[in-house]
Design a protein that fits this description.
Strand content: 5-15%
Helix content: 55-70%
Largest sheet: 7 strands, mixed
Number of strands: 11
């Protein structure tokens, strides 16, 4: 069975042909070296690492898992060697500042290549996830001394990092957090508390691990307004990074999980550990959101990875597996049966995976492009507009990409039939690994509340209206071929419907705020499907023009047009169900009592 192969052709199509990354990079200060040739080379080299080094350790990493003994965690066989190759290749430093040892390439490029790493091995990829978020947070909020020490070591990959938020008694509601930070003479703090579900909290890949920890000062206000952020390293060090005394932070245990078993998910105990304030007192949540937003975009990319992996596996299997004859007549006269790829239901499952993998890839690359603009544009107006788009679209991308990525992983397993349930094919691992992405960095329900409550209704839908106006302006400026006009009409009608549903929820919420929570997930999924309709129509439009220029890739471009047609015919109609749920309101959800729910 063919293993994962990086889809650099489609990645470059999304970047250059649809989203015009070449011009985008040329406009950025960091983009001087990000020429099309360099970007192509970066993708190809990263693909080699993933295919030749990371893919081979994926399956046994799942089977062997991590082991914990007396606070020490050992990663699966081969992971330490693979990490060394990852580090020696300079991949942690791709988009970091040259001043701290980075390569200075645009932030979007590091987000884009991560898709390949997750597809190759989700468990391994999670050990790299904390680095980028910590680097970005320390770069924005750290002192010169902190940047010189911690950022430099993280950029080189010599040290690793974690994000420590969740506690046993509270997950999303960080206002309930109990971890304490007590000021000490000399400007340090003693951090005491327990954090759970900490990805890579302890391992043997690097000499030091830098924990970015939320904690509460003694005189802090109650709730989320009284949270500060601290750097708590596993080992203390001098200013040159030479390791010294072991800090009072230890791994109490690792979790036994459904998936991503090669990644150590740790219970971390801070027993008066020495910490260093990162940013300003009582503004830790604001600083942590730099880390969290980076993690949400990275998690959205994981949804693409799981869909892509499953699609490749099930496509290859469907071309080889012989089962029954096609209803329309024999397709494989030299064999005892036809390959299952001829059957409509298998086509449905394959095309659904393809539509979600490639559509969400475009959505996430669009977000990565906005990240570049928000960080680097010389125009304050452009920076603010990009940040507004990011604020609006990030919760959609995180939740929608992971929900549909998991759906795609399940369809891949279904294509295999009973063989999909067997470990040897690898698709059941993909299902198990994909499931966590809908939970961490905020569940789908949390993302939906963030979208509808904070990002849309809280500002009277101004950001949504501005974005939909941009979509309309784009399509009014395009000379669309007649063959795509019916799809454009559907898209424009659904944009109007999107705004109408928003107004409807807002009006009902004035009478009953439960209407927001009742509608939120359906609203987010409606939003995601409409966004993908835009990107698939854009893909089809570009592909029709490109196939005239490049006859050698005719099938690639025709596949874009046909997949867009499938998306509009078979997936976009799901919006009608979401709209029905939205308009049904909260009453049937909230009228049943707790006693009735428990009436067995």
């Amino acid at each position: 069975m063919t293993e994962y192969k990086a889809q650099t052709t489609d990645m470059l199509f999304a970047m250059n042909d649809v989203l015009d990354y070449a011009e985008h990079y040329a406009s950025l200060p960091s983009g001087a070296d990000a020429t099309p040739d360099i970007v192509h080379a970066v993708l190809n080299e990263y693909a080699k690492l993933c295919e030749n080094v990371i893919v081979p350790i994926n399956r046994h990493g799942d089977e062997e898992g991590c082991t914990w003994q007396e606070g020490q965690v050992k990663t699966p066989t081969g992971y330490k060697e693979a990490y060394e190759q990852y580090r020696e290749g300079g991949w942690p430093s791709l988009s970091s500042s040259i001043e701290v040892g980075g390569q200075g390439l645009p932030a979007s490029l590091s987000k884009i290549v991560c898709e390949m790493l997750v597809s190759a091995s989700p468990g391994f990829a999670l050990y790299t996830a904390g680095q980028s978020g910590a680097i970005e947070t320390i770069a924005e909020y750290g002192s010169e001394q902190q940047r010189a020490l911690y950022e430099t070591k993280l950029v080189s990959g010599e040290w690793n990092a974690t994000m420590c938020l969740t506690e046993p008694h509270c997950g999303t509601d960080l206002g309930l957090m109990k971890t304490k930070a007590e000021p000490q003479v000399g400007g340090t703090y003693k951090v005491t508390g327990t954090k759970i579900f900490i990805t890579g909290g302890e391992h043997d890949l690097t000499d030091n691990i830098v924990h970015i920890v939320l904690a509460r000062l003694p005189d802090a206000p109650q709730g989320t307004k009284g949270i500060s952020l601290f750097i708590v390293p596993k080992f203390l060090s001098d200013d040159d990074g030479n390791l010294g005394q072991r800090n009072s932070v230890h791994c109490g245990s690792i979790e036994k999980k459904m998936g991503v078993k090669a990644s150590a998910t740790c219970v971390m105990n801070f027993d008066g550990a020495t910490g260093f304030l990162l940013g300003t007192e009582n503004e830790g949540l604001k600083a942590m959101f730099t880390f969290m937003n980076a993690a949400r975009i990275a998690t959205a990319t994981q949804g693409v990875s799981h869909a892509e992996f499953g699609y490749q596996k099930s496509l290859n299997y469907a071309k080889e597996r012989l089962q029954m004859r096609a209803l329309s007549g024999v397709k494989n006269p030299s064999g005892p049966a036809d390959p299952i790829i001829v059957h409509p239901d298998v086509r449905r499952m394959l095309l659904t995976q393809k539509a979600f993998a490639e559509g969400n890839r475009l959505l996430n690359y669009y977000l990565a492009k906005q990240l570049d603009i928000a960080l680097e544009s010389k125009s304050e107006i452009e920076r603010l507009a990009a940040k507004t788009r990011l604020d609006l679209l990030t919760p959609i991308a995180k939740a929608f990409s992971t929900e549909t990525g998991y759906e795609s992983a399940n369809f891949a397993m279904q294509c295999f039939g009973g063989h999909g349930y067997i470990r040897e094919w690898g698709v059941e691992q993909n299902v198990r690994d994909a499931r966590i992405a809908m939970l961490y960095e905020g569940t789908t329900g949390i993302q939906a509340l963030d979208l509808l409550g904070r990002k849309v209704l809280a500002n009277n839908a101004h950001s949504l209206i501005a974005y939909t106006n941009e979509l309309r302006a784009y399509w009014s400026s395009v000379d669309l071929p007649e063959s795509l006009q019916p799809q454009l009409n559907k898209l424009l009608n659904y944009i109007d419907t999107w705004l109408g549903a928003t107004h409807n929820i807002g009006e009902r919420a004035k009478q009953n705020m439960e209407e927001v929570g009742a509608a939120s997930v359906s609203y987010l999924m409606l939003s995601g499907h409409i966004l993908l309709a835009h990107f698939w129509l854009q893909s089809a439009f570009v592909a029709i023009n490109k196939q005239k220029e490049n006859i050698e890739k005719k099938d690639f471009y025709l596949a874009k047009v046909e997949t867009a047609r499938f998306y509009f015919d078979h997936l976009l109609p799901r919006c009608e169900g979401y709209l029905a749920s939205i308009h049904a309101g909260a009453d049937s959800m909230m009228s049943i009592t707790e006693a009735q729910l428990a009436a067995w």
